[in-house]
Amino acid sequence: MKHLYLLLLSCMVISCTEMRTVTTLNDCDVVATKKNENLTVCELDAVKQTITLPFSELFKEWGLVKLENTSKEIMVGPDQRIFISDNYILIWGEKNKDMLLFDKHRKFQRRFGQPGQGPGDIVGQLAHTQIDEANNAIYFSDFNPKRISKYQLSTGKHLGEYPIDIKGMAKFFLDIDKQLLTVACAGKLNEFKICTQKLNGERVKTIQNNFDEVGWREVFLWNNDDDILYYNYELPREKDSLYHYDISSNKLIPCFSIDFGEKTPDHRYFVTNQYYIGTVNDKLEMSPGYTAYPEKWLFIDKHSLKGAYARLVLDRYGDLDVTEVSPCTMFGDYYATILMPDRLEELCRKALLENTDLPAESKEELQELLDNIGEDDNCFVLYGKIN
């Protein structure tokens, strides 16, 4: 059975604690408790250890793909939204304005949409996309709050639209087999925060909106490989939870949260079959007028409730540390982020310089990656399919 999940986010600073490095999560302390049969809460102050987590252990499939650069029109910048499926990489960003489809062998396939106000055009910016390889389709939502657009995956042809009725940008999950569309939206102006409807727009069930907040908010909606639908609603500087949306009972059920204490940092929540995952951003002043926000990854085993911070490393490339590569996304079954050539080169050179005890084979892997980075290259997409 698949589930749907919801997330709420917040911003502030957390204090530094002395971290102890251990080998595996099994060696770590218990850092979370079960508040009831559904809800797990992690106590951030209890997290004192750090593990190294290779991509090959976290993901059953992962890759670092250098997108082809055969024309200026398909060059990709750093500020992008990425959506991954079994065979494709779909990218939208401020630079391109339309959707660019590549395969996982780096080859550009085709475009979808264009900036505009007409049928199939992208209004403002892309909000959400679902790649449906089984039905040869791509669906997307944008700043037009009245529709979900549909394209043919193999040709890029616009095939029509599904009507919705919200204010703002919609996140959605489309179940073609059941002919149902689940839509989530942010903001107190909407009468519901989540709605399941038929493809003709007829509402089947809704959860009424009880938000009375002001300011910027964003909602996240995704499903995993077990068809579990997750819902996450972002509330800056406030405590929040990741929810499972039970479509059959039409309930949002809190399943994971972090107790940050008095100050709530900028954070996100994700979930896999094995872990609850949180990212936490520390505010770090690098120089006067410039502040960086290095991202810490926190993993909690769903069964043992043991947890630790994690260094994410590419074990295929000499344990290259990509922990602070951001922004990244974990959507559905996939983690994905973009690495610009200069950033990847910087990481490789730093690893070769600082990791003097790397085995010869690892050094060769890292050097080979470095040698294949050119100044005119398109971006690299790092992705992983969750175990």
| Oligomeric state, counting identical vs distinct chains | single chain
Question: Which CATH top level class of the domain at 3-13 and 23-59 and 92-313 fits?
Answer: Mainly Beta
Named CATH topology of the domain at 3-13 and 23-59 and 92-313? Neuraminidase
Range of helix content: under 10%
Largest sheet: 7 strands, mixed
Low-confidence segments, given as residue ranges, are: 7-18
* Global morphology: globular
- Span from first to last CA? 16 Å
Structural class: mainly beta
The number of distinct helices, counting runs of at least 4 residues, comes to 3
Annotate the secondary structure layout.
Layout: E1 3-6, E2 20-21, E3 32-34, E4 40-43, E5 49-54, H1 55-58, E6 59-66, E7 80-84, E8 88-93, E9 99-103, E10 108-112, E11 128-132, E12 137-141, E13 147-152, E14 158-163, E15 171-175, E16 180-184, E17 192-198, E18 203-208, E19 219-223, E20 228-233, E21 242-246, E22 251-259, E23 266-271, E24 275-281, E25 284-287, E26 290-292, E27 295-301, E28 307-314, E29 320-321, E30 328-331, E31 334-339, H2 341-354, H3 360-371, E32 380-386
Helix pairs in contact: 2-3
What does this structure look like?
- This protein is mostly beta strands.
- It has a domain at 3-13 and 23-59 and 92-313: Neuraminidase (6 Propeller), CATH 2.120.10.
- Helices cover 8% and strands 44% of the residues.
- The protein contains 3 helices and 32 strands.
- It has helices at residues 55-58, 341-354, 360-371, and strands at residues 3-6, 20-21, 32-34, 40-43, 49-54, 59-66, 80-84, 88-93, 99-103, 108-112, 128-132, 137-141, 147-152, 158-163, 171-175, 180-184, 192-198, 203-208, 219-223, 228-233, 242-246, 251-259, 266-271, 275-281, 284-287, 290-292, 295-301, 307-314, 320-321, 328-331, 334-339, 380-386.
- Strands 1, 3, 4, 19, 20, 21 and 22 form a 7-stranded mixed beta sheet that branches.
- α2 runs antiparallel to α3 (360-371).
- It is globular, with a radius of gyration of 21 Å.
